[in-house]
Every structure is written in structure tokens, then in C-alpha cells.
Amino acid sequence: MLVSRLQRQNIPTLGIATMQQTLEELRKEPADLLIVDLQLPDGNGLEVLQAVKQLGMNVDVIMMTGFGTIETAIEAMKLGASNYLLKPFSLGQFELAINAVIEQRNLRDENRTLKERLAEESGSNPLLYRSEEMTRAMSLVKRVATTDATVLIQGESGTGKELIARAIHENSNRREKPYIKLNCAAVPDNLLESEFFGHERGAFTGATARREGRFEQANGGTLLLDEISEIPPNLQSKLLRVLQEQEFERVGGNRTLRVDVRIIATTNRELLKSVEAGEFRQDLYFRLNVVPLKVPPLRQRSHEIEFLVQEFLKIFAQKHGKPTPRISPWALEQLSAYSWPGNVRELRNYTERALILWEGTKDLEAADFSLTPSPTDDGLFPVTGNAFPTIADVEKRLINLALKKTGGQRTEAARLLGINVRTLRNKLHEYEGGRESDETSGKTDEAPASA
Ligand SMILES: Nc1ncnc2c1ncn2[C@@H]1O[C@H](COP(=O)(O)OP(=O)(O)OP(=O)(O)O)[C@@H](O)[C@H]1O
Ligand SMILES: [Mg+2]
Predict the structure, then answer these.
(1) What does pTM read for this prediction?
(2) Mean pLDDT by 10 residues, the chain (451 residues)
(3) Which domain holds residue 149?
(4) Domain assignment of residue 384, yes or no
(5) Is residue 385 domain-resident?
(6) Ligand 1 atom nearest residue 295's Cα
(7) Ligand 1 neighbourhood includes 312 CB (under 6 angstroms)
């Protein structure tokens, strides 16, 4: 009766007779809600409850018990049941119990999404940098933040332009005011104007109600125009007007609205090239480019890759409830030499994946990051635009590798490398200061250097 009642409300419901089958079904397909009787042919409801909680299933449990067993109901609640029903109960009571659980569940989901969004927007996604290049960029950010100057952030995809834009807003006097983002590339051309400026009711087919645009929403605060190079010519002139006069009309409206908005624009193209190609208005370019901020690609600040990887590992270890793995020096070297066409975004994603797949025992190796090799890459020595390895680099890496493989045994390492021990020793001497030569010196029979 209860099953058909729920099905009539369009809640997909399955009726199951035994504890065994319940657990099997749950393993096959997760459910949101389990309504379980205390007495089952092959066990009891409390066991089911314990099992799903132990397995960490995200399922709510309502326990049905006979009149005489209120203690059991209390115990069920202690074990994590969401609600209970004392038999006999009416369909009204049944529905109340179900609705209460659904409501709790929705609140919990909503709470979780909000928390995730919050974490994404702040704490767990901090702007990390250590290189001189980024330090210089960030000191500019801090200086311009408190002015109302328009900032144009240019940089390859994944270099952190959005994080920087947010940092500008958060360091500005507008930080308590709205921070609104509009991705110009994500909105179809014909809807972009209404996204910008809003529309009046009936302005076009489908405009069933008046709608505020992003400029209005951002009033008093900051508006981030993401991927600015993508806006069509007719809108470029309208945008220019708002930037110059801070006023505009809604689509289909004739009232002129005034706003006070600070503009930050980003692009992953060379906007000046678009100007030269006649695709982007020059006057708009100058209006936007009051403070130009160029974010260097990661391969031009490869000396901070090691730092970024370590920080991301810490962040993701915490997120996924794992200890922070160590990463081998050889892997760090390879990560630093990789070209990172997707910049920090790519590094971040690769690091998270490596951490998720990490079994928690050995150090992370380069293979755990499964880098996509560049076309000129032979797999052993990653080659990037500006970091072509010299013969000395390659030799050094190869020697380090051999020493690592042999646990620092020089005689054995020399054999692997096909050179004699004296040559190896001379080379290590030459590369003095190299990690491996320091660590391993003294481990072996140091004969006096021969002439
Ligand atoms: N310096 C940094 N520190 C920490 N995380 C970073 C840094 N730079 C980029 N990221 C991360 O990389 C990802 C991409 O950053 P962001 O969205 O700011 O890039 P973008 O330059 O706007 O790229 P696109 O042009 O593709 O939109 C985000 O997850 C961001 O958190
Ligand atoms: Mg972006």
C-alpha cells in the first residue's frame, strides 16, 4: 500500500521483502530514502540502518516500529535514522514523515552546494605565487585595486586571470559591493546586449518580464567582462558609451539609466592584434587598457612550478582526506620542464588527478601525472619552447637517474651508464652541487683524484 502510494506521487519506489535483498539493491543503485520495518524475515531494520551508515551511503532511513517498541525508535534515531513511524500510522502521518525527510535532505544538499561554491570562490582556491614575475603583477594589482581604473588582464588560458580579477575586487573599496561576472564568449551574440543592459518586458520574443542586466546588478561594485575579445561590433560601441558616460538603456526601453561600475576585462588573445585585424574597436581598446596587466604563461615562470605543485598537493590532500604525498625530485624536474600549454589550470588538474590515484605509499613520480608529451618530447627529457636541455643537462639528469636506480652505488651506476667509475666521479665533481652527488659522496670508496 505504501509503495503504490509513493508511486502515485511519481516517486520511483521499489518494494523489497528481505534485508539481504535491500542491501544488494542499494549496492546496485543508490536510493535517497529507505523506509524499513523493524521486523524483517532475515534480520531487523536496525541492522540495515547500521549497514548503510557503515558503508557511508547517502541515504535517509525512516524506521517503522510496532507500538510497544518506542525504545527501538529512539535507538534507531541514535544510530542515524532520519525519522520513525510508530505503527499503526495513518497515510497522513506517513506523508508528513516523508516530507520532513525530503525537506531536510534538500536543505542538506543546498547547504553542501553553497559550501562548495564558497570554498571554490575563496579559501580552498587561493591565488598562489612565488615567482618574481607574479610578485610584480600582484604588486600592481594591489596598487590599482583601490582606484576605480579599468584594468585589462591579458594572458593565456589558465594563467589565473579570473583569480586576479577577483583579487582586484577584494582589495578595492568596493569589496562589500557586488562582484558580477559575465563571460562574453558563453552568451550567444543576439542575447549579449540584454545580458549587458537588461531588457524591458516584450522587448523581443521570449522577454516575458523586465530583466536587470549585469551593469545594473554590478552597480556600486565591480563587473568582470570575461573574454572581452568575443563581443560583436555593434555591442562594442554600446559598451564604449557606458565606459565613457556610465549610462545606457535597457533593450526595448527608452529610459536612460546611470550606474557606477568598475570594469575589469580579461582576454586570452592579444587584443591589440584583434584591433589591428579590424575586429576590435581601437577606441574601446584604449578605454579598457587604462591599466594593462599581463599574466605570464606558466612556462615563463617555471621556477615556481615546484612551489605550486607542493601547495596544490596540500590543498587536494586535505580535500580528499589523504595525507600529503611526497614527490620525487626527478618528477619535480620533469614537471618544471614541461611546457604546460593549459598553464596553472592544467597543473592544478593534473595534480588533483595524481593525488586521487595515489595509493598512499610511495613518492609521486612523473608518470603519476601522466603529462601529455609535447611533439618534440622523447618522453625522457621533456622539451619546451624556452627550455631545451643542453647536453650537460641531459647528462646530469641521466647520472642522477642511474644513481637513484642503484641507490647511490657508483660502480653499479657507471656500469648502467656504460662509462667507467673514474669518468663518473669526474663528472660528478664537475657538477658539484648537484643533489645526488652530494648525497652519495662518501658512500663509496673515494680514491684520491687522479691527474
Ligand atoms: N596563481 C594561481 N594560484 C592558484 N590557482 C591558480 C593560479 N592560477 C590559476 N589557478 C587555477 O587555475 C584555474 C584557471 O584559472 P582562471 O580561471 O583564473 O584562468 P583564466 O586565466 O581565466 O583562464 P581562461 O582564459 O581559460 O578563462 C583555476 O582553477 C584557478 O584556481
Ligand atoms: Mg577565465
Answers:
(1) 0.62
(2) 88 91 87 91 91 84 82 86 89 90 83 67 77 94 94 96 94 92 89 92 82 93 95 93 93 92 95 94 96 95 95 91 90 88 93 90 86 53 57 80 84 90 88 48 40 36
(3) 132-296
(4) no
(5) no
(6) 21
(7) no
